[in-house]
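Data availability (excerpt). The following record was deposited with the supplementary files.
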Amino acid sequence: MLGMLVTIGMANPASADALLEPDQAFRPAVRLAAGGFAIAYAVAPGYYLYRDRIRVVTVPPLPLGDLEMPEGEAIDDPFVGPTRTFRGSVTILQPFTASPRPGFYRIRITAQGCAEERFCYRPFVQEAVIEVPPR
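Predicted structure:
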């Protein structure tokens, strides 16, 4: 399968002490993968993404299964208590439960993360577009 690769948010921070916007701190790249699509996150140094706060929907709807992701790092977070997080980079697979129809699909990812011991973002939405080509 060939598809469109989309990377969201590539700006640089104005200062090392300034908080990054979510699209700068947590940059997903979405691409078609065998049996679904992959979301490869690049997490800025000093930031982490909550594993269990990632949700995906598509417009129009695709037949989606449960997200497949690594276990993540167990931490006792000062904002939410015991949880699992991702730092650096992580790839998450969103499997299809049936063959999707060809076309363009908007991928809406809701996630939440924090700047290390400084600030916890409210859940944020990031979007990308993929193309499912004809078979």
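Summary of structural features: The longest strand covers residues 103-111.
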